[in-house]
């Protein structure tokens, strides 16, 4: 989860002030956590429940997302999701927004198999984002996180994920014309390619922000995958926590006690994996 949270915090100051470059101050003083972090933590917290049915787990997710959403009402939610957060009887509203994908990293982390990652993603997503594109984006993200955490290579991950989207483009190709969008189908494949083209965790986040789109969500999705593949430098983990409230830090800590994050302080960069050259 920490990868999604770092991505969210780094991208937060560029959501409505987009840039088209990778060179910028990373965890800067004006950064903040947004709804991406709040909902990511809410989902992770709900998945810590033991010995319960999937149906009860889904209800726990609804309750936790509403509770934390109401506790942080100004975190940056979309209007329809904010209505869902405060609804007495929250119902899915056929959303195809990228909010479905930005919150599901914990599903990929706790899952013990590919099929469970997909199933957990569906349970968590369909409570609000029950449009097929919302469900697909969340599933692809949860699957990517699970595969990365399981030690799969980028080629192995690509072979799974190309079944969801056409990934045969490069970030340099799309950057000039890419623009802000909240659509899952126009966010998740771009985040996936940012991961595939990256050389380390920080580079993945910088690539996502450099697209100039919905920066916090793009970086949250990219970061959730990159953190499980590369590992996160300890200083980034520590620094990111300083942006969270004590409550959110406690919940994140509760999750990480059971599912420890992968740390990596090595400076060695991996050779880029260019998806536009794929067979």
Topology summary:
Elements: H1 2-11, H2 35-46, H3 54-71, H4 79-86, H5 99-102, H6 105-110, H7 114-125, H8 132-149, H9 154-161, H10 171-174, H11 188-197, H12 201-210, H13 215-230, H14 234-241, H15 246-258
Helix pairs in contact: 1-12, 1-13, 2-3, 2-15, 3-4, 7-8, 8-9, 8-13, 11-12, 11-13, 12-13
Based on helices, strands and strand pairing, what is the structural class?
mainly alpha
Order of helices and strands: HHHHHHHHHHHHHHH
Strand content: under 5%
Which runs of at least 5 residues are low in confidence (pLDDT < 50)? Answer: none
Supply the number of helical segments. 15
CATH architecture: Orthogonal Bundle
Distance between the termini: 32 Å
- Work out the helicity level: 55-70%
Query: Quick one: biggest sheet?
Result: none
Q: At the fourth CATH level, what is the homologous superfamily?
A: ADP-ribosylation/Crystallin J1
CATH secondary-structure class: Mainly Alpha
Radius of gyration: 17 Å
Overall number of domains: 1
Q: For the residues shown, what is the average pLDDT?
A: 95
Please name the CATH topology.
Answer: ADP-ribosylglycohydrolase fold
Which geometry do the CA atoms define? globular
The counted number of beta strands is: 0
Note down, in words, how this protein is organized.
- 56% of the residues lie in helices and 0% in strands.
- The mean pLDDT is 95.
- The protein contains 15 helices and no strands.
- It is an all-alpha fold.
- Helix 2 packs across helix 15 (246-258), helix 8 packs parallel to helix 13 and helix 12 (201-210) packs antiparallel against helix 13.
């Amino acid at each position: 989860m920490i990868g999604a949270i770092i991505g969210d915090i780094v991208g937060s100051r560029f959501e409505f002030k987009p840039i088209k470059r990778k060179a910028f101050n990373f965890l800067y003083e004006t950064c903040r956590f947004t709804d991406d972090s709040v909902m990511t933590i809410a989902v992770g917290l709900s998945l810590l429940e033991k010995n319960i049915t999937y149906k009860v787990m889904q209800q726990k997710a609804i309750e936790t997302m509403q509770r934390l959403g109401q506790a942080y009402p100004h975190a940056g939610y979309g209007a329809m999701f904010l209505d869902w957060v405060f609804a007495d009887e929250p119902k899915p509203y056929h959303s195809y927004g990228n909010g479905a994908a930005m919150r599901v990293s914990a599903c990929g982390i706790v899952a013990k198999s590919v099929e469970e990652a997909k199933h957990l993603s569906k349970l968590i997503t369909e409570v609000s984002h029950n449009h097929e594109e919302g469900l697909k984006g969340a599933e692809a993200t949860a699957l990517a996180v699970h595969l990365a955490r399981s030690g799969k290579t980028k080629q192995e991950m690509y072979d799974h994920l190309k079944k969801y989207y056409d990934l045969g483009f490069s970030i340099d190709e799309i950057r000039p014309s890419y623009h802000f969008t909240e659509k899952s189908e126009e966010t998740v494949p771009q985040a996936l390619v940012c991961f595939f083209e990256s050389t380390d965790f920080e580079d993945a986040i910088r690539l996502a922000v450099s697209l100039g789109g919905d920066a916090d969500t793009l970086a949250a999705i990219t970061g959730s995958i990159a953190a499980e593949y590369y590992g996160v430098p300890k200083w980034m983990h520590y620094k990111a926590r300083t942006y969270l409230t004590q409550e959110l830090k406690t919940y994140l800590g509760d999750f990480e006690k059971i599912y420890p994050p992968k740390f990596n302080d090595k400076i060695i960069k991996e050779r880029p994996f260019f998806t536009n050259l794929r067979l």
